[in-house]
Specification:
Elements: E1 7-14, E2 22-29, E3 35-40, E4 51-54, E5 58-62, E6 64-69, H1 85-99, H2 102-118, E7 121-128, H3 132-140, E8 143-150, H4 158-172, E9 180-186, H5 194-207, E10 212-215, H6 219-227, H7 232-238, H8 250-256, E11 265-268, H9 274-283, E12 286-289, H10 291-296, H11 304-309, E13 313-316, H12 329-344, H13 352-359, H14 361-366, E14 384-388, H15 400-407, E15 413-418, E16 421-425, E17 428-429, H16 434-452
Parallel strand pairs: 1-4, 1-5, 6-7, 7-8, 8-9, 10-11, 11-12, 12-13
Antiparallel strand pairs: 1-2, 2-3, 5-14, 14-15, 15-16, 16-17
Helix pairs in contact: 1-16, 2-3, 2-16, 4-5, 12-13, 13-15
Length: 453
C-alpha cells in the first residue's frame, strides 16, 4: 500500500470503544495506515507535515463490522416480499439460476460495497456461492471474510461437492490479502447432508479456513432436523433424498458431526435452547445476529441476552438485501435494541454502549479480526467511521453514543476509511463508481423480474 499522509482527525466526539467517549477528541493516523494516537484534541499536537481534518459536529468511531451479508444478491432487493421461507428460498434459487450470470454477481458485489461504504461499514463477512466478493473487497479496499458456500443434500453428492469447494477456494485465494480472508460455508441443514457437513469441517480444520453455517434459523429447518418433516421434506423426498431425523436440534446435530470443532460463525441462531447455547459457548463458536431479516421472514428473534450471559461471542449482521432491503448497520443495531426490549419488557437491554461494541469490537471478535480492528487505539489499523451529528434528527446531542445509535442513520456517515485510506467522503467514493455500475445492476434486475413473472 502506498504511504499515506500523516493525518489528524478532530471532532466533537471520539468513541474509542475501549475507553469512554472523548469530548473534543482526536485520532492521529500514521503514514502506515495505523492509529498513532487517540485522545483529547488539545493533548495531541499535530506533528510537522501533518494534515489536520476538522470534522466538527461529528463522532469518530471504529469502522462498522457487518458479520453476515450476501453481496451477490444485491439484485434481489424488494423482489421477494411477503413470502414464507420455503417459497422465498425456492424463488431466489430459481431466479438466480435462470437470470443471473457471473458478471451480474460481480456487479452485485460491488453495488453492495457502495452501500456498505456509504453507511460506514469497513468490514463485511460475505457468504455466497459465486465468491464475487473476494475480488470486489480486494479491489475496493474494504476488509472482509468471504465464505465460499457448498451445497449437497444428497449424501451421494459429497465427493463431487467437496471437489468443487476445493477448486473454488483455490481460485479465490488469488484475492486473499491482509484485508481479505477466504473461508467456507456448508450452507444449511436443508441443503447439506450430514456427510458433507463433516467433510467440510475436516477440510476447514486441515486448511485453517474460517467457517460459517446458517443454523437454527427457522421452524421448518428445526422440523426437518428433529423429525425429518416440515416444508423442506417433501421437496427433498421428491428428489430421492431420505429425510430421517438428524438430531434433537441443529446445534446438537452440528456438534455430533464435528462441525463445532471448527468454531464456525453460526448465522441466525433464532431457535436455541439452553443446551444449544452451552454447546456454542463451550466450543468457542460465534454467532451472527440478524434481527431485521429474521423478523421480516417471520422466524422470530434470537436469544441474544441469553447468549451473552453464557459468554457467546455475537456480532451483528444485516443478511442480504433480499431479506432485509437495507445494508444499514446503525439501523440494524437500533432495531435490535427495540426488539429485545419488547421481548423482555425491559428498558435496559442493549443500551447504546453495548450497541457500539456489538457493531465494532464484538463483530471483529466474532470474525477473529479483533487484533487489527474494532477499537480506536494505537497500533490498530485505522478503520474509521465518521457519523455527522449535525442534522436536525440527531440534535441536540446529550449522549454521543445514544445519538449515533438511536438518532443517526447510515446516511449520516460522512467518512469511511480502511487502513487509513479514505474510501468514502461526503457522497464521493474513491474506489467505486455507482454511475458506472448502475447500468449493469438495472439490466440484471430487469432480467430477474422477467424470470420471476
Amino acid at each position: 500500500m502506498p504511504e499515506l499522509p500523516l493525518t489528524l482527525y478532530r471532532a466533537d466526539w471520539v468513541l474509542p470503544v475501549c475507553a469512554e467517549p472523548i469530548r473534543n477528541g482526536a485520532v492521529l493516523v500514521g503514514t502506515d495506515g495505523r492509529i498513532a494516537a487517540v485522545g483529547p484534541a488539545l493533548a495531541i499536537e499535530p506533528p510537522e507535515g501533518c494534515v489536520v481534518e476538522e470534522l466538527g459536529q461529528a463522532a469518530i468511531l471504529p469502522g462498522l463490522v457487518n458479520v453476515h451479508a450476501h453481496p451477490e444478491l444485491a439484485m434481489f432487493r424488494g423482489a421477494l416480499e411477503d413470502l414464507c421461507f420455503r417459497d422465498w428460498i425456492l424463488r431466489l434459487v430459481g431466479a438466480k439460476r435462470a437470470a443471473l450470470t457471473d458478471a451480474d454477481f460481480h456487479a452485485a458485489a460491488r453495488w453492495t460495497l457502495v452501500e456498505a461504504l456509504r453507511s460506514g461499514i469497513t468490514t463485511l463477512a460475505a457468504t455466497e456461492s459465486s465468491g464475487a466478493s473476494a475480488q470486489a473487497l480486494c479491489e475496493a479496499g474494504l476488509r472482509g471474510v468471504v465464505y465460499q458456500e457448498v451445497f449437497g443434500p444428497d449424501p451421494a453428492q459429497r465427493d463431487e461437492a467437496m471437489a468443487g469447494l476445493r477448486a473454488s477456494v483455490e481460485c479465490l485465494r488469488a484475492w486473499e490479502c491482509d484485508r481479505v480472508k477466504i473461508g467456507v460455508s456448508p450452507h444449511a441443514p436443508y441443503t447439506v447432508s450430514d456427510t458433507l457437513f463433516s467433510a467440510t469441517a475436516e477440510y476447514a480444520l486441515s486448511e485453517n479456513l474460517p467457517m460459517a453455517v446458517h443454523a437454527a434459523e427457522s421452524a421448518i429447518e428445526h422440523q426437518l432436523v428433529q423429525a425429518g418433516e416440515g416444508d423442506f421434506a417433501p421437496g427433498l423426498r421428491a428428489r430421492g433424498i431420505d429425510t430421517p431425523p438428524r438430531g434433537r436440534t441443529t446445534v446438537e446435530m452440528l456438534d455430533r458431526l464435528g462441525v463445532l470443532r471448527a468454531r464456525p460463525l453460526l448465522i441466525h441462531c433464532v431457535l436455541l435452547d439452553g443446551d444449544d447455547i452451552r454447546r456454542v459457548s463451550d466450543t468457542g463458536s460465534t454467532v451472527a445476529h440478524c434481527p431485521v431479516a429474521n423478523a421480516r421472514l417471520g422466524h422470530g428473534l434470537a436469544p441474544y441476552p441469553e447468549m451473552i450471559a453464557q459468554n457467546v461471542l455475537v456480532g451483528l449482521g444485516t443478511d442480504s438485501v433480499g431479506s432485509n432491503n437495507r445494508l444499514d448497520l446503525l439501523e440494524e443495531a437500533r432495531i435490535a435494541s427495540v426488539l429485545h426490549r419488547a421481548r423482555l419488557a425491559s428498558c435496559s437491554v442493549l443500551g447504546p454502549a453495548e450497541l457500539l461494541r456489538l457493531c465494532t469490537i464484538d463483530g471483529a471478535r466474532a470474525l477473529g479480526l479483533d487484533g487489527a480492528v474494532g477499537t480506536l487505539e494505537p497500533d490498530k489499523d485505522a478503520d474509521l467511521c465518521v457519523v455527522s451529528l449535525a442534522a436536525p434528527h440527531v440534535r441536540p446531542v446529550h449522549d454521543p453514543v445514544a445519538a449515533v445509535f438511536h438518532a443517526a442513520r447510515g446516511c449520516d456517515v460522512v467518512l469511511t476509511a480502511v487502513q487509513g485510506r479514505v474510501l468514502y467522503r461526503d457522497g464521493l467514493l474513491a474506489t467505486l463508481d455507482p454511475a458506472t455500475l448502475q447500468p449493469a445492476v438495472d439490466d440484471a434486475a430487469r432480467r430477474l423480474r422477467e424470470a420471476m413473472t
